Every structure is written in structure tokens, then in C-alpha cells.
Amino acid sequence: MIVGVPRETKPDEYRVGMLPVGVEELTQAGHRVLVEHSAGMGSGIPDEQYAIHGAEIVATPDAIWQQAELVVKVKEPLEPEWPLMRAGQMVFTYFHFAADEQLTRQVLQTGITALAYETLRGQKGDLPCLTPMSEVAGRMSIQEGAKFLERPQEGRGILLGGVPGVPPAHILVLGGGIVGKNAARIAAGFQADVVIVDINVDRLRHLEDIMPANVNTLFSDRHNIREQLALADLVIGAVLIPGARAPRLVSEADLAAMKPGAVIVDVSIDQGGTFETSRPTTHAQPTYIVDDVVHYCVTNMPGAVGRTSTYALCNVTFPYAFRLANQGLQAACQSDPGLAAAVNMHAGRVTNQAVAETFAIDFQKFG
Predict the structure, then answer these.
(1) What is the separation of C-alpha 57 from the centre of its chain, rounded to a whole number of angstroms?
(2) What residue ranges define each of the domains in the chain, with the CATH number in brackets?
(3) DSSP-assigned letter for residue 341
(4) pLDDT for the residue 143
(5) 295: enclosing H helix or E strand
(6) How much is the average pLDDT of 144-149?
(7) How far is it, in rounded angstroms, from Cα 125 to Cα 357?
(8) How many Å separate Cα 10 from the centre of its chain?
(9) CA distance 272 to 291
(10) Given the DSSP bridges, would you call strands 113-116 and 343-346 parallel, antiparallel or unpaired?
(11) What percent of the chain is modeled with pLDDT above 90?
């Protein structure tokens, strides 16, 4: 099989879809691997590293899309890439269709098989391809939140851990999943005052057991959220419904209860955002202000730490890419129902029910 690894085109995206070791394993198994020139530079991987392990370095993305039967990426294809995709081609990447109707309908028209990292299921029903980037984003959310709480960044001028005689920042984490757990753990390390809210009481019990004393838990309901918003210096949006749009837990009217200069970091923005006032931003222009509240809504947060993120991501995605190359789509999905769950589109049909329901598109089960 011909496997293609294009350079990412999303602004300030420094990750790459495959490591040189992956190229070596594929070529030794008899496959061809095409890597676009400079695809790995943002992660500190020069073309030479790919070439010495068997990759063919190509000058343009057109060469990747025209030849590759399986394209392995990191982020969703952007508009210039849509015309390059062709029917029958497999594209393995993060798609987050439920957050973008135009992307959904345009990719559907290409006839590709869209395998989405974010809906691929592990043997325990987990989301193995989403987990490492959720860990990175959760940890980064506190790093970025701390920066934008500084007064020169139009924040409240709050030091997360405070100092003797001055209280620490109060941090509200909406969602106790992978992102929320990692955010809370890093915030606790800064000695901030942290509250995690979630609707899963068993999850809250687990978090209560493993978190330090400066992290508390609350059941997620409207009253608790509104009370915590009034206290919060920093709010982390960390809610996920696999494949579907993130629920909006904070309305625009709720911002009136927040402190001027408070910061929102909406990690859920890839899936549409947890806050009504959230809209996608970039690393180049990461924030905007609504009702005196600083909003940080970068859609590819882990892309800023490309080397860490690339290695963490490829550690979990490559075995699936290798299986697709060796076995083909049908056989690979028959042998692994979790991989079949990654198929969001196939042959011009939406095969993920959450995506179909989001945009009122006919659903057809894959397989």
C-alpha cells in the first residue's frame, strides 16, 4: 500500500502524523511511504531522518494526495486540501466533524473513508487516540491560563499559587475526564484552589481519592456552576461527548457573574466549545474578550508543543495505521471493532451516528 504523510497546513500546527520508526516498519513490510518535504520539521524531525528509514520525500502535497491510498495526518483537512482528496482513499486523522458542518459536507462529497482518531475505541471502550492529546491539552490549559491571567495579557493579575498572606487563584474545571484530571493535577501543583465539576458521581469519587487536598469536587448542575463562576479566576472547559458537539454549560449571560479579567480556556473548542461565547482562535491570536472575560479557544493547543505531542500521538496511532496498511480497511475493521468505530464516513455516507444527528444527515452503519 502507498501511505502518505503530508505537512500540516493548519496555522501554527507543528505536529506530524508519523515518526521515522513508523516509516521503517511500513517499508520493511513492503509498503511505500511518501513524506512531504519538511513535514516533520516542526517536531524536530528533518527529512533526512525519514529518508534514511525508507521514505520517499516529495515536494508538494499534491503528490501525497494523488498517490496515497492511506493518508495519515494530525488535523482535519483544510479547504485547499478538499479538492485533492479522492473517492476510496483512506484518511486517518482528527476530524471533529460535529464542530464544523462545512467540513462535514465537503469531505462527505469527496467519497473518502474518513477514519477519525477521536472516535476510535480501545479494547476497554476508551479513546486511545484522543487520550494523549487530551493529556497534553489538559496540562497546557493551566500553563496558558496562568500566562493570560497576567495583567499585561489583560487578565486579573493573579498568581496561581498566591504567596504567604495572599490567597491563590480559584480554578474551576468543567469536566472530570482526561483533560480535566490533567488540568486539575497541574493546577494543584501550582498550589491553586481547584474545583472539578462532573455529572458522573463515580468519577467524582475516583478524583476525590487521587487528587491532593487543594482539589475538591462538585456535582455538575446549573446552580453549582453559576456559584463557581462567580468565584473563579480561571475556568477550564473540558467536557467531551465522543463524536458529538460539546454541550454548552456556560451561557453568555453567565459571564456577567464572572470577575473582570477572569480567563476561560476552552479545551472543548475542537468539538464546538463548552461556552456559548467560544469561537475558534489560533496560536498567533489566541485570545479575545467578551464582557471583560478573556477567552482562550485555540483549536490545536498541543500543536504548540509539537515534539512532545507528535511522539505521544504517534505512539498510539501508528499500530492502527500499520494494521490498515497491512490488512486493508475491511479486514482491519473486522478484526478490530474499535477501529471500525473510527470510520465516520465511507463511500459518500456518514457512518457515525452522532455526526449524522448533529447535521440531520442520513446515517448508515459501516460494515
Answers:
(1) 28
(2) 2-120+306-358 (3.40.50.720), 133-299 (3.40.50.720)
(3) T
(4) 97
(5) strand 293-296
(6) 98
(7) 22
(8) 13
(9) 20
(10) antiparallel
(11) 96
Q: Are the beta carbons of 265 and 184 closer than 8 angstroms?
A: no
Q: Which ranges in 244-367 belong to alpha helices (H)?
A: 306-327, 329-335, 337-340, 353-358
Secondary structure, 3-state, 38-88: CCCHHHCCCHHHHHCCCCEEECCHHHHHHHCCEEECCCCCCHHHHHHCCCC
Q: Which three cell numbers stand for residue 331?
A: 479486514
Name the nearest CA neighbour of 70 among 346, 314, 338, 322: 322
Give catalytic residue positions: 96, 270
Instruction: Give me the residue label for grid cell 492511506.
Output: 70
221 CB burial (10 A radius; 0-12, 13-18, 19+): exposed
In the predicted structure, residue 243 carries a pLDDT above the cut 80: no
Size (the chain), residues: 367
Q: How far is CA 323 from the centre of its chain?
A: 23
The C-alpha atoms of residue 114 and residue 86 are separated, in whole angstroms, by 11
29-41: average pLDDT: 98
CB 360: neighbour CB atoms within 10 A? 6
Residue of 358, 347, 337 lying closest to 114 (CA atoms): 347
Pairing of strands 263-266, 215-219: unpaired
Q: How far apart are CA 97 and CA 105, in angstroms?
A: 9
Question: Tens digits of per-residue pLDDT, 272-301?
Answer: 999 999 999 999 999 999 999 999 999 999
Q: How far apart are CA 226 and CA 326, in angstroms?
A: 52
pTM: 0.88
Q: Predicted confidence band at 240 (pLDDT cuts at 50, 70, 90)?
A: confident
Average pLDDT for the chain: 96
Distance of alpha carbon 85 from its chain centroid, rounded?
22
Contact indicator for 38, 14 with CB cutoff of 8 Å = no
Question: Which amino acid would we find at residue 167?
Answer: P
